[in-house]
Amino acid sequence: MSYASLFGQLFDQKSALAIAVIFIPLERLLPLRRSQAILRKGWKTDLIYLLLNSALMNIAIVLGIATILSLKAKIIWSVIPEPVAHQPLWLQVIELILVADLAHYWMHRMFHSPMLWSFHALHHSTEELDWLATFRVHPVDHVPTSIVMLLPVMAFGWSPWAVGVWGSIYRGHAILQHANIRLPLGRFGLAVVGPEFHRWHHSTAGEARNKNFAAQFALWDVLFGTHYLPQGVCSDSYGIEETIPTKYVDQLCHPFRELRQKWRN
Ligand SMILES: [Zn+2]
Ligand SMILES: [Zn+2]
Predict the structure, then answer these.
(1) CA of 111 to the centre of ligand 1 (A)
(2) What is the average pLDDT across 53-81?
(3) Residue 33: band (very low, low, confident or very high) from pLDDT cuts 50, 70, 90
(4) Amino acid 77: pLDDT
(5) Which of 73, 75, 166, 207 is 20 to 30 A from 148, comparing alpha carbons?
(6) What average pLDDT does this structure show over 209-232?
(7) What's the CA dihedral at 220, 223, 225, 227 to 10 degrees?
(8) Angle at CA 178, nearest 5°, toward 101 and 43?
(9) Separation of CA 167 and ligand 2 centre (Å)
(10) Alpha carbons 97 and 216: distance in angstroms, whole number
(11) How many angstroms separate the alpha carbon of residue 14 from the centre of ligand 1?
(12) Distance of CA 139 from the midpoint of ligand 2 (Å)
């Protein structure tokens, strides 16, 4: 199985939908906000992101990877010894989480810079976090981030099995941290990203701004000085100051309009 087709399967919307079937009842069983409806504000647009946007971005990611492979950008791959793919599966998966999340951390942090924020603001615009909010991402944000994450994954030559397991964990983990569920991790929150950790990332609270960039391994935030997880308190206000359009196509065009406006000014 080629890496491009493997990633294509990992990041498709069908696997995401299958995971969602688990999260809808879970949000009813362990709700953080009991009063939050399943069909909350903006759910229709977010469903389009899940069904259409994920598929389109998936094609772009696979094309990007295929292009890189065709350019024979296997620089590290050729110097890393074969045994990488022959380590125990669990060890390969842990290594994948650490390496891919380090790439994610810096890409995510970059998209919080003033120049790129317009594209990432869309993901932060949701005011009611749940499993479906995971998918509200702009392609200009998601595609380069995914490609940069996947480059070391390809380059180091981990086995397709390990990449498959990591990809499934990554997808489930992303949905878990946005879900409307109460899951305090206590001291584990210093190492593992949980819903509370990522809720602070989406918080409107000033002290949580530009904090908690990791997607899986919270220790990257501890090491780089951006960790914020007060014990016993949970953020309950999410969103951004800017106004984002409500319709799907308008939302995708909005960052480009903003950039044009900034350019004119
Ligand atoms: Zn962010
Ligand atoms: Zn998020």
Answers:
(1) 7
(2) 67
(3) confident
(4) 53
(5) 207
(6) 95
(7) 50
(8) 130
(9) 17
(10) 7
(11) 25
(12) 14
Return the amino acid letter for 185.
L
Say how many Å lie between the CA of residue 85 and the centre of ligand 2.
Answer: 31
Q: Please give the structure tokens belonging to residue 158.
A: 């981990």
Measure the CA–CA gap between 121 and 115, rounded to whole angstroms: 11
Say how many C-beta atoms besides its own lie within 10 A of residue 68's C-beta. Answer: 17
Burial class (CB in 10 A: 0-12, 13-18, 19+), 29: exposed
| Token pair recorded at residue 1 | 């199985």
Average pLDDT in the chain: 86
Asked if pLDDT for residue 55 goes beyond 90, the answer is: no
Residue 122 confidence (pLDDT): 96
Number of alpha helices (DSSP H) and beta strands (DSSP E) in the chain? 12, 0
* Residue where the block lists tokens 């409806």: 37
Boundaries of every domain in the chain = 3-264
Which ligand is closest in space to the CA of residue 111? 1
Written as six digits, the tokens of 180 are 């409307």
User: How many Å apart are CA 214 and CA 174, to the nearest integer?
Assistant: 11
pLDDT of residue 1: 46
